[in-house]
Specification:
With about 270 residues, the chain is mainly beta. The protein is built from five helices and 15 strands.
């Protein structure tokens, strides 16, 4: 038996999203400040730069998280790895070496509460049943998912999409039914959702943060020729073809801070 006080009932904490057993909480302002960082923290809160966390209530089920994501767990909760042997570990190590995702993802099971580390990124709860056969993620977006969700590494359909598209040769794919938590550089309300029906979208830059695995990703010249592309100053564009969805960031964001970055901006300087 346990009780949690001064947490969700704290007037500085609000639940910004909730699906199933997952809650996304946000701290309206950082009260753990000192004279050296209080100004930055004040204006950060005004500009929606806030710490956010994922709270998962375990009810006899299992969740998978990225390595090192757990901050605390409460109740009858056990942590295990998803490695089934030496061969499985080597396979996951190879997959992890070609992506920015962790090689081994911890699994938590039992009954109780699981809190993940705070982040300045925006946290999205995605229901994979809304993504057809699966969703492909931009590097570093995965945070957690229900254990029934399958995850694997997929390779680009051709080398040009990796070399010219600045997306990497491999990506993480989530498939099946269940909930997943993603870390996004921009908030959900700013992400443009595009539903393609046997159509094509061309994007000049790495603005797509997630897309259906049914879409074919390639890279093409923006013009009909290399000279035309050079004149237009666009060069190459990322092309997504087929039927499926895309989450598109409207701008390239500079808000992907790691925890402590803001504080370091205002740390006291030593020396003369």
């Amino acid at each position: 038996m346990y009780q949690i006080k001064n947490f969700l009932d704290n007037d500085d904490v609000r639940v910004v999203d909730e699906k199933g057993n997952i809650k996304i909480i946000e701290y309206m302002k950082d009260l753990s400040v000192n004279p050296y960082n209080c100004i930055n923290e004040f204006f950060a809160a005004k500009m929606n730069v806030r710490k956010r966390q994922t709270l998962i209530e375990l009810k006899g089920d299992e969740y998978i998280t990225s390595a090192g994501a757990m901050q605390w767990m409460l109740g009858d909760v056990q942590s295990v790895t998803d490695v089934k042997g030496v061969g499985d570990f080597l396979g996951k190590a190879i997959k992890g070496s070609v992506t920015k995702e962790s090689t081994v993802k911890p699994k938590y099971r039992g009954t109780g509460m699981l809190m993940l580390e705070p982040t300045y990124k925006h946290l999205l709860i995605e229901d994979l049943s809304n993504w057809g056969t699966g969703i492909v993620l931009d590097d570093g977006m995965f945070l957690a998912c229900e254990a029934k969700v399958k995850y694997d590494v997929i390779m680009r359909s051709n080398l040009s999409s990796a070399v010219l598209g600045n997306q990497g040769l491999f990506s993480l794919r989530l498939s099946g039914n269940g909930l997943a938590v993603l870390e996004s550089p921009v908030p959900r309300e700013e992400l443009i959702e595009i539903d393609l029906q046997n159509d094509t979208i061309r994007i000049d830059g790495n603005f797509a943060v997630a897309w259906s695995d049914t879409l074919e990703f390639t890279v093409e010249k923006s013009g009909k020729s290399l000279i035309g592309s050079a004149i237009s100053a666009e060069g190459f564009v990322n092309v997504y073809k087929g039927t499926g969805k895309i989450l598109l960031a409207p701008v390239l964001s500079s808000t992907s801070y790691t925890l402590g970055t803001l504080n370091s901006l205002s740390a006291p300087k030593t020396g003369k």
